[in-house]
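Sharing a chain and its predicted structure for anyone who wants a worked example. Both blocks are below, sequence first, tokens second.
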Amino acid sequence: MMKAGMTSPLSRRFQVRDISAQYGGPTFDLIFHDTESKVIRYSEAVWDSEALALAEADRLEESQAHPVHWDAC
């Protein structure tokens, strides 16, 4: 199941989120499901294409990154 604005499967730790409506043009950020801290974190960076954001999500997933410096909600 996919949440609105999400462009990658929920089973992944990193997901791409479409935030274009907030910026008036193609804009995507990443969401990190931090299960250790039990929070959802949002990337500071944004991308202007879904493909670039997905590539970064894949890179972070493969490297087993844990970006605890990202803002949490």
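Comments welcome. The chain has a mean pLDDT of 88.
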